[in-house]
Every structure is written in C-alpha cells, then in structure tokens.
Design brief:
Elements lengths: L19 H5 L2 H66 L12 H14 L18 H11 L19 E2 L3 E3 L7 E5 L6 E3 L5 E5 L4 E2 L14 E2 L5 E6 L4 E7 L11 E8 L13 E2 L4 E5 L5 E3 L2 E4 L2 E11 L6 E9 L4 E5 L3 E3 L6 E11 L3 E8 L21 E10 L2
Parallel strand pairs: 1-3, 2-4, 3-5
Antiparallel strand pairs: 5-8, 6-7, 8-9, 10-12, 10-21, 11-20, 13-14, 14-20, 15-19, 15-21, 16-17, 16-18, 16-20
C-alpha cells in the first residue's frame, strides 16, 4: 500500500511593487525580486500538487481496503448471527427437526417427559427404537430386575452375602427393606408379623423378645411362640403367600420352641384319701394347675377348657376297691361335643389295698374350643373314701391322685 508523504510548504512571493515605488526609484528592483520569488512559488505549488496526488492515491487504496474489511466484517456478523440462531435452535427448538432429522435438546426433554407421564407398562421390546419408547425409572428398574433372574447356575467361587443395617424390633418388621441378607434385630418389642416377598434373610437377635406365631405373617416352627435370647439366629423365607421361619437356632443349643403345655391334677392334703366315687363313670377331680402355657386354656370345677388345635395327652388316675378283681378304665371326654375324645387302656383292680392306675394317652384334634373332663369307669359305689385312691401319708408331701398333661402341637 502507498505511504502518505508530507506536503511541502507553499513558497510565498515577494511583495509586488506599488506606484509609490516608482517615485522612490525601487520599483524595478522590487519587480525583479517579485519575479524571482514567483518562480519559486510555482515550483512549490508543483511539489504540493505531486504530494497531494500521491496522498490521494494512498487514501483511495486505504478506502478500498477499508471497504473490503467492512464487507468481511459484515460477512462475519452474518455468520455469527446464523451460528447463534442455530445454537438457539439446537437448545430450544420444538416441533420440527433442527437439521438432518435431529432434534433439539428441549424437544427430546419434552418427549421424555410426555413418555414418562403416559408410558404403558407393557412387555419389554428390545427392538424398539422410537423416541417415544422411553421408560420411567421405575419401569427400567422393574425390567432389569426381571431380566436379572438367574436360572440354574454353578458358582465357581465363594459368594459373600452382605450384612445389612440393624432393624429395630416392632410389631411388624419389614425384611424386604433389609440392606443385606443378614441383619441384627435390636430391641425387645414383640414381633407379630414379618414382611418378606421371597428371601432368604438371616436374623441375629441382640436381645430378649417374643416371636408370635401367625399362620401367614410369621409361621414359626411347630406353630408355637418363641422367646428369643441374645445370639439366637433365625432364617426366614417366603413363597409370596406365607412368611416362614424355616430354621431357628438358639445360642444355648436348646430346642427353639417347646410345645405349649398344660399340667393339671387332683391334689389333697397329707393323709387325705382320693375320695368317693359317684357311680360309673365318675368325673375325676382336677383342682390344681401346675403349669399352663397354652393361651386361652383354663381349668375350673374339674373341667379343662382348651382352644381349637391338635394335642398330645397323658392322663392317669388311681382307684382302690376291696374285693374281687374288677376292671376299670379312664376316658378323656368332651363335654362340649358330648363325645369321647380318647379311650384309655384296660386296667384291673387286684385288691383294695393298693392303687390301680388307669391311663389315657394319645393325640387328638379339637375343631373348636372344648370343655374336657376325665371320666373313670368302674365299680364306684360311693361307700369308701379310698375309691379314688389310697394316700401315701408322707409328711410334708401332698397327696396326688388323678393327673393330666396336654401338649398343644398344632
């Protein structure tokens, strides 16, 4: 590009002589001086003209360059505006593709939002590629859980099961929410129900509490309640309908549960005979409860009331009647149903000086609550106070005659 050059200064001519100079005789001298300087001025004007022409050419070049740069700037602005619009479209445009069938981020977000709100929970279609086939996080989780089900497998290394956070005892404990397959149970609150879809879960009890049997929500071994102790372990499983405690191990090695038990008998003071019979059959007295751990079981006026269930029974009662050999038999009788429950084995009185025992033993089931008594068949006339047993007469030891034990096994 042509450089700008300095413009030379204008050479001013000498003053032109005036008429006054004629009279002074200086007119010709000044006229010559003026003529000489007039040539110098002409030369300076020529130099100024050349410099001005050079500068004008440089100015034109600069103007042309400026115009070119202005065009480039305008093009750049147009390109920038286009890029900004395109960036905006990629971010926010909805309803149509931005370019080549591709949509904006906002478009995909709206489609995903709509899909989550209206998604049908149908079967998986792994071949689906439409953008409207998006699934909610819950659906994805459920499908992954279903696809993660294992068929028959052989593990070639140890599989470690996590110990989860402890669960506080409560009326209902939720083992589905356990954070590991093995958890400690803290506290002493009675547990009456367990929530579990499949399992297994291993429980370690940290203290003393009661596990209450329930047919579906907490099915315990033997159908009996269990009193836990620190260090006891239990394994729970479920078939989806019933939650089972499939194994219970006590820390002290004793059986996990003992069947609920009722022990009742006829006790009298030292030296007192068994009492008079009242014909055949005679209802044997039962006046003393030794042990009762069967819920809802009770004894009153020689009648044992038991709730519905299955029981093992062992009963015995003596008699001592003088005279010839006489048969006698003990029967467990249901007053409520007016029917024999179990008939005992045959017995024979050999003489009147010793007790002869009749027994009833076996298993029976009550479909409903029953009022049970011991019936003793024999030659009871009511004439001898020893008909229902001869006393032992041991100091400080009460006499015991009729006796019955029940174990509730189901």
């Amino acid at each position: 590009m042509t450089d700008i050059v300095p413009v030379p200064a204008l050479v001013e001519p000498a003053p032109f002589p005036t008429t006054a100079d004629r009279s002074s005789g200086e007119y010709n001298t000044k006229a010559k001086t003026w003529a000489d300087t007039e040539g110098l001025m002409a030369e300076s004007l020529h130099a100024i003209a050349e410099a001005t022409h050079t500068n004008a050419a440089a100015a034109k070049e600069a103007a042309d360059a400026a115009a070119t740069e202005a065009d480039a700037a305008a093009t750049a602005k147009t390109n920038a505006d286009t890029a900004a619009d395109l960036a905006s479209d990629w971010a926010t445009k909805t309803g149509a593709a931005v370019s080549g069938g591709e949509y904006s981020a906002k478009h995909y977000a709206q489609v995903a939002e709509a899909a989550v709100a209206t998604l049908p929970e149908g079967a998986i279609n792994d071949a689906a590629t439409s953008e409207t086939d998006a699934w909610s996080s819950e659906k994805v989780s459920n499908e992954l859980q279903g696809k993660a089900s294992l068929a028959a497998n052989t593990f070639t290394a140890a599989q470690n099961l996590a110990t989860g956070a402890a669960i506080a005892s409560a009326a209902t404990i939720n083992l589905d929410a356990a954070t590991g397959n093995r958890v400690h149970i803290t506290g002493t609150t009675t547990i009456t129900a367990v929530t579990l879809t499949r399992g297994p879960r291993t429980l370690v009890f940290d203290g003393v509490l009661t596990l209450t049997h329930h047919a579906t929500n907490n099915s315990l071994p033997g159908g009996a309640n269990i009193a836990t102790a620190a260090g006891d372990r239990a394994i729970y499983e479920s078939d989806g309908a019933v939650v089972y405690c499939v194994l219970y191990t006590k820390a002290n090695g004793l059986p996990a549960a003992i069947a609920p038990y009722l022990h009742v008998r006829d006790e009298k003071s030292v030296g007192a005979g068994g009492g008079l019979g009242a014909g055949s059959p005679t209802t044997r007295p039962l006046n003393t409860v030794v042990t009762n751990t069967i819920p809802s079981a009770s004894v009153s006026t020689n009648i044992v009331t038991l709730p519905a269930g299955t029981y093992d029974v062992l009963a015995a009662a003596p008699t001592a009647i003088a005279g010839a050999s006489t048969p006698h038999k003990l029967v467990l009788y249901n007053n409520t149903a007016a029917a024999d429950v179990l008939v005992g084995r045959s017995a024979q009185i050999s003489n009147g000086s010793t007790n002869s025992f009749a027994e009833v033993r076996g298993r029976f089931t009550l479909a409903a609550q029953g009022a049970l008594i011991l019936r003793h068949y024999g030659p009871f006339s009511g004439a001898n106070n020893l008909e229902l047993g001869i006393p032992s007469n041991l100091a400080g030891k009460n006499e015991v005659y009729s006796e019955v034990q029940f174990w509730k096994v189901a």
